[in-house]
Amino acid sequence: MRATDAVRLAVGVPLTMRPDLPARVLGLPPTEGLVLVTRALGIRYAVQGLTSAALTATSWRRRALVADAAVDGAHAASMLPVAVLLPPIAPAALLSGAVAATLALLDGRAARRPSRRQSRDKSAAEAAA
Question: What is the spatial distance between Cα 56 and Cα 52, in angstroms, rounded to a whole number?
Answer without folding.
Answer: 6
